[in-house]
Amino acid sequence: MSVPHLRLSESVTIPQLGFGVFKVDPAATQQVVETALEAGYRHIDTAAVYGNEEGVGRALAASGLPAGEVFVTTKLWNADQGYDTTLAAFERSMERLGLDVLDLYLIHWPMPDHGSYVETWRALAQLHADGRVRAVGVSNFGIAELQVLAEAGLPTPAINQIEAHPLLGQAALRDYHRTHGMVTEAWSPLAQGQALDLPEIAAIAEAHGATPAQIVIAWHLALGNVVIPKSVTPERITSNFAAHEIVLTDEEVARIDALDRGHRVGPDPNTFHRL
Ligand code: NDP
Questions:
Q1: Quick one: 105 exposed, middle or buried, by C-beta within 10 A (0-12, 13-18, 19+)?
Q2: Structural domain of residue 79, as residue ranges?
Q3: pLDDT-based confidence at 275, cuts 50/70/90?
Q4: Contact of 243 with 213, CB cutoff 8 Å
Q5: Domain presence at residue 91
Q6: Which of 32, 214, 231, 237 for a ligand 1 pocket mutation test, highest count of atoms within 8 Å of Cβ?
Q7: Residues 54-86: tens digit of each pLDDT
Q8: Centre of ligand 1 from the C-alpha of residue 151, in Å
């Protein structure tokens, strides 16, 4: 069984299961990403602010995999929002990654009070039109910000990467994405570990002879989310990847849906403002 792909545009698809590197020490990133590539991941999610784009680039170069085989996402940091600053920040990320063309570039946070995300989105649309990036999207945008982009007559983001896990189902935002042809991508998909001790998840894991993390990842896949679990632990990197072979029943999916508590493990995008 191979990892399913979801369509971002007529010509671009994204592997539904990827590997996140938030909080992976820059000095360890090359090794960790090499382990992920050996385990079978073909999709890596980094960001300028993680400080580890160079390690991702080194792992890609060392892998011997053909160019274009691994789907790479990076994100524009808040301090670089604005049209010209975005174009310059993109080039710096590409230099660190050692890539000529990026698969997916995201605005990391909307920072609505900063008032720059529309100009920033225009810059991403230009990078896409210029062929520097195959798909563009956003992260942590709410319905209000997505509507502002639509009202400005700008292209619809291909994807919105948002916090989502069994304790934060994000039903309304996921519905909005679906009705507007956008893909939902789940960050902190394991709730940074908090979703793994729930008795309901443990029971389903036992029924499948699987780990709780595998069940949570399989649930994201069943919902149609792109999912990017992070781990620096080789056994977890491997077992998390194997989750794409687990098929949950509709009843199991519904039992996990019912765990939604509106509980965030990360910042609230409406108020998050860090430069
Ligand atoms: P995750 O929900 O992926 O959880 C990671 C934590 O879970 C780590 O502590 C890891 O430990 C542990 N873990 C992983 N696998 C297992 C397992 N099988 N059993 C037990 N524990 C496990 O959290 P993240 O916050 O890292 O989110 C994932 C990715 O999402 C990030 O790496 C990043 O790419 C992206 N992200 C994006 C954000 C955004 O604003 N756009 C914000 C936050 C994250 P260990 O590493 O020690 O094995």
A1: buried
A2: 5-257
A3: confident
A4: yes
A5: yes
A6: 231
A7: 999 999 999 999 989 999 999 999 999 999 999
A8: 34
